[in-house]
Amino acid sequence: NMNNQKIAVLGLGAMGSRMAVNLLKAGYTVTVWNRSPESTKPLAAKGANLATTPKLAAKSADIVISMVTDINASKAVWLDSETGALSGMVEGAIAIESSTLTVNWIKELAAEITGQGIGFLDAPVVGTRPQADSGNLVYLVGGKAEILKQAENILLSAGGGKINHVGEIGEGMAMKLAVNAMFGIQIAAFSEIIGMLTKNGLKLETAIQYISDLPVMSPAVKNAANLILKDNHQAMFPIDLVEKDFRYVMQTAADIKATVPISEAIHQVYLHAVDKGYGRDNITGVVKLFI
Predict the structure, then answer these.
(1) Of 65, 178, 203, 280, which one has the greatest count of Cβ atoms within 10 A?
(2) pLDDT in tens, 64-93
(3) What letter does residue 76 receive in the DSSP assignment?
């Protein structure tokens, strides 16, 4: 039974906590670590083992999954000389980075990890809290097929509905940044357009209704339009993180000399939203800049 595998989950934010819960439900032995320990309590109540450092969490784990906010957190979680997970991992174990980071950082991290005889996958996810709860996340994976084969059941149990093996290390992350850029660009553009329409005297409902029936509307924007209509900006993908992801899109583009003028312009829009105090709103809160 594959469920004998021991899993460590590092980072218990909105996504990491849900992954850990899903893995516990699937019958895996799960050890969790989080920078602020209070988030570990609900997991302990559900049967998770608690570790005080990533290193201790990784000690006997077959698979270690990180789901943290940014590169600094990823660096600390994996590579800190005293507390990092890598120093606790056994040869033949597998490290999985599911955070949204830059492609360069993923390649750097992978080199450190695989250099010690440990398997590595970049496996960011498309989807947010509802998809994590319902097991409908889409994994975008970079790495070797044989490593993915060993980790596949765990990714599915953690909340995956679909696993796309995008390509080599870093290519999963490149695809994730692309998806988030596409999403962020569309929501900002839609918000701007709706602002223009309402300022021309159209009712919000009418503006959204007419535009929603047309082929220019993507399913993602349709969903966002629905939230905008309800004035519901409860965070699923908070603007703070949208802004960070655009920063990483631009770093990743700069590293390979790709030009991203639209992403740069849209980044400014989300920065402006953060400056206005909307950072903790859902991405759809960007509409407040325009209506």
Answers:
(1) 65
(2) 999 999 999 999 999 999 999 999 999 999
(3) H
Tokens of 244: 């960070």
**DSSP letter string, 94-157:** EEEE-S---HHHHHHHHHHHHTTT-EEEE--EE--HHHHHHT-EEEEEES-HHHHHHHHHHHHH
Q: Please name which of 10, 70, 61, 7 lies closest in space to residue 34, comparing C-alpha atoms.
A: 10
Between CA 194 and CA 189 the distance in angstroms is: 9
Token pair 């040869």 is found at: 91
Give the number of other Cβ atoms within 10 Å of residue 27's Cβ. 13
95's tokens: 């490290």
Which listed residue (55, 59, 176, 288) is catalytic?
A: 176
| Model confidence pLDDT, tens digit, residues 242-261 | 999 999 999 999 999 999 99
